[in-house]
Queue: 2 jobs
Job 1
Amino acid sequence: MAVELLAPAKNCDVGKVAVNCGADAVYIGAQRFGARKEAGNSILDIATLIEYAHRYMVKVYVALNTVLQSDEEVHDAVRMLRTLHDAGVDGAIIQDMGLLEAGLPPMPIIASTQTHNANASSVQFLEKVGFHRAILARELTLNEMAAIRKATSHIELEAFVHGALCVSYSGRCYLSLANGGRSANRGECAQPCRKRYRLEDAHHQTLAEGHLLSVKDMCKIHMLDALLDAGITSFKIEGRLKDTAYVANVVTAYRSALDTVLARRGATAFPDKLTARVAANLTKTFHRGYVAGFAEGAKKMANFVTPKMMGEQVGRVVAVSGNIVTLNIPRGIEIASGDGLCFVSGDALKGTGVQQADGHHLKLRDATGIRVGALLYRNRDQHFLTQLEKSRTERRVPSIISAAFCNDTLTLVATDTQQNTARVSVTEGLSSARDSEQTLKTWKKQLAKTGDSEFVIKQLQMGGAELPFMPVSQINQLRRQLLDQLRAKRHKGMMRIRDRHAMQYSPSPYPGVVDSYHNVTNSFARRFYQKCGATDVANGIDADGSGLRIKVISSRYCLRRELGWCLKADTQKKHTGGLFLVDLDTPGEQRLNLRFDCDVCEMSLFQESEHE
């Protein structure tokens, strides 16, 4: 299977940046029914991105991965997918199984991580049903990924390698729905996990306070080799709400790292030429601190201080006078006007901006709360972001053009690095050259020009007899015709690949009970599970809310472990009594009851009233 670097696209413009920086594929939200409701895109904009991406043989997947709450929504979603199929989209990411019963167009179908792809039996089922790919749960270890690969044959496995982590298993979080009616399974998550909470025991004694559910961001750039060994072939960058600077920086970093790994393995090199003038730096764009998630085993993952970006530590305060702050700045760090700084004050993260910098002395927009001894962090590097904006990466497709004149026929042939070939022949309007040397120079000069197209001519081959004379305008016209044909060949090749991997839906026995957490919210989804052998299909929680007493989070993240109280670890501090979380940002909210299944290292949160 081909290895793929998959990048997010908030919109068409961000998608183009991802393509330019070396993505092999991009994913973008549909106009409706995407798991990031704020990142929806019109059919026209998606079609524009598809046309641009296909020039570089980059795939475009559309995310249509919410649950559908009525049969009417299922029909609307299918109509949308048919239009996107006609526009050339390379695949669809879905959560709602009802779509399989509603007559999908012939395209590859990808099972969203929202479908809880967390074990081998679940992914085996998806493979048997006909899914082309499964996006694995973020919580899986390398060994668990490898076990899924071993248990399956042809289904592609996609894994997140960078970006935000959810505290809950995707598709199994109802905290936002329970607290404010905004469902994560409908693309409306209000991110209540990023709030401040107080951890209490059964007697209302405070045990801890802070952003207790706010996990750091994922970064697995050092694990690409190991992920390949585990059977992952699509490396996914999270971030469909991120801007162009974020996408450019992160895609560039992972493109370089992945190419290094593939070269070491003797794999086929990245086919295109990238020109970038700014080195990527993952510390410079938004992150909450980096962890590898659970891939390397359970480790501490949260930042209790803030869910915001702190950035890089730039120095400790040695003096404060009004808005003038003096720092002890380590060698190699330069702070400049326009930089953003932050610091911890009490139990909160506060920010300010640099108005003027003179070595270790900074004039800040506001120094309120900064004390001698405080650590300052830079969460906005103005110079880096400016250079990143000015130095946009260019991507070109290296190609060879050959020209030959034989038997009164002029033939031009263009070939790209993936062996796509186009040919143009001319038999009329040709005349012998009076100055063969000058004519050859003219041909070479004009054939090498590709303007702002995606092509770059890496080699010109002039064979056969002397080339005929032809006006420059006609040479240019032939070159454009030749490259247009090559572009069309590349697009047709992609469509053949898409059609070859189109889903062949085949109901298969479902390995388990279809409870309310399977998110069945329409009759098509119910029919799907019934065809797969389920006799008692429960209504999904998103269908009716299921009241207040529900399990709102299922998670491998564990507060006991995070606080050093793990019952399975060799530690002196263990807390075995009842634990509760109280929302500090929204007074009057009900408490969350924490329950632990230590046999499988999972924590659950239940929405219950205080007296229970």
Note: The chain has a mean pLDDT of 91.
Job 2
Amino acid sequence: MAGRIEDYALVGDMQTAALICRDGSADWLCLPRFDSHAVFAGLLGTDEHGFWRLGPAHATGGEPPPANRRRYRGDSLVLESEWDTPRGTVRVIDFMPPRGTDAPQLVRIVEGVSGRVPMRSTLRMRFSYGWVVPWVRKVEDRTVAVAGPDSVWLDTDADTYGRNLTTYSDFTVGPGDRVALTISWQPSHKDAPPVPDAEAALTQTEDFWREWVGHCTYHGPYREAVVRSLITLKALTYAPTGGIVAAPTTSLPEEIGGSRNWDYRFTWLRDAAITLSSLLRTGYHEEARAWREWLLRAVAGDPEHLQIMYGIAGERDLGERDLTWLPGYEGSKPVRIGNEAAGQLQLDVYGEVTEALHLAHMTGLARNDYAALLQVKLIGYLEKHWDEPDEGIWEVRGPRRHFVHSKVMAWVAVDRTVKLIESGEVDGPLERWQKLRDEIHRNVCEKGYDKERNTFTQSYGSKELDASLLLIPQMGFLPPDDKRVIGTVEAIQRELSTPDGFVLRYPTSGADQGVDGLEGDEGAFLACSFWLADDLAMIGRVEDARKLFEKLLALRNDLGLLAEEWDPRLQRQVGNFPQAFSHVPLIDTALRLTTSGAYGG
């Protein structure tokens, strides 16, 4: 049975990632890429759908208990879990070496600390998201599982044996003993991958993260949280292309038992653009450059048909389907792969992409002529379509609307491009687009603002609120001291807050289809809660901002990781995990509070 979402740790190699539970069970791993089929899909089903559990052997043959302690080794993605047992203490070190073009590996090193502790490894590989039982055989001293195009090789000095379509290893460790177990993926038609050197890989992995974190320019009071978030964002970056996945998982529910379950293993332009901005402001220009190059390749040849998301190598076809054989996380069905929202019209994306390109230019990223040309082409399209209804930032599956946030971000796109033309970096119809910028601004203020309640609304003519309106002052659409901004912030805090002070995206309708065209409810959206903390600081309520920020930090699991949402009723994390769209605003709010002196020290 899968653990709670917050019970999981992330290890990864910048091409894929595994989730490992407190009990030492790797319950999610897609090979060889983030968006490949899962070899371990127990997270979304049962043990029959694949897992790898490693921990102290239970005296009665049961499964190991949760680890007594776990942590990442310093500022790295190397996980250490420790168990105290009646026979002694044992440590398991889990990591995935950054691989370049080598075979992807999940390495697990068992280290005896005290006493003599019997250990058991239980490896159940199931390919194609738990659907296919592979053919497992011995090849000399190695164990290989093969099905179709995939092969996974197990290497260990421990004895292995098979039973009930599962591979076991039983061994005992004493003080200082170290036993390594490694799985490596390889296309099944190729020769076996090299036998891994687990200890050398551990040193290489620790060196990689130490060197990478050393480039961080943030040294404020929230450094631990910021660095852990940056490491998580780096782990969600697909190194060969620079694409950034929103999360390494699919179908972790926004409501336990509900149907709001989506595949997040793709690159959303919005998420990637705001990730780029956080990386730029903390010293990571190389990642920003790689993302810009990914963007230019993804959009190349067809800027007028900009998608809101692409595959991690720029793929456009992300067809959605249900995996009917998987029961879902805690019964939350359906389990989906692919995402049909890729075909939606979301006008705000033009603003986020343009803002990211603008920030890259302003922070000294080397000029790219095609990036500037792309920006102008995007505004040429937006000029003709900005006044159309769209699906908006939250990817509603109901009717299109004139979402206020979408119009605000259209204004951002035009505004940043006007500034680019004014700087002399590129040619464009300056006067016409200055007028367009003013027209969009006027349109939003007239049609998206409720004078009686002194607040902007979710869409033109609606009474609903929407947490995306919190971005109005952050994007410079209106100054933070404007009474309409203050009124909107206070209305959202009043009407969209949960009892514990976190923020919902918008009202949902339970069993009935709401504005998003979906049944069911969801938790507080963590990004929106960070946005509220930002806005509170901007309107002068700095102490309130700090208190909210620190409450949000307390929601992180013991390893500093956040999912997409927080369920205030169940008091647990929900949604795909870990979520870039939660860790990015954490970094942004920490930077804002640090510069405002809001940390109280």
Note: The chain has a mean pLDDT of 92.
